[in-house]
Please model this.
Amino acid sequence: MFIGHWAPALAAAAASPRAPKIGMLFLAAQLVDWAFFGLLLAGVEHMRFSPGISVMNPMDLYHMPITHSLLGSAAFAAGFAALLWLGSKDRTLALIGGAVVLSHWFLDLLVHVPDLTLAGSPPKLGLGLWNHPAIEMPLELAITLGALWWYAKVRRPPRLRLGLLAALLLALQAFNWFGPVEPEVTAGTSLLAFFAYGLVTLAAWWMGKSEAANR
Model:
């Protein structure tokens, strides 16, 4: 799951006027992976490229007990919600933000081969849709574009900015699916992830800023 992780952010923004701003929700949706690639860079969590470990994704995510355990993801969600509450004193806003953070683990559960945990140790979990491209690819596009359509219908952002975000999401997903596979994990692996997440979050913030100004 890549761009599909932003679907809950878009859905939350469409569903409730008390949700955090869309840029903040986009940050929330990928917070767990921001942390993972940071810890990968620091040598705390680990992955390697192993082509064939699944049909669609060559990443062997063999050690990520902090970020991709359900307990760890819940801790990130609680921390993020607490920061939102401290900044806004709005319990609903904070709970929505925390729920978007936690959605990351459950979406990963659908697609990952067994590499997720409940609390950092086996059993390892994952339903493995990465081994079924005919299911995973249309599913990811459907939830992302469906949530984007819902957001656009409710919030009515400018079409140019909405279109830019949609094009960026599709381009990054195409690169994720069909781009070259790195031979080994380097610092550039994390930096590339940070660039992609940051670019999409910035585009969402830009879209939401204009949408908010026009309401």
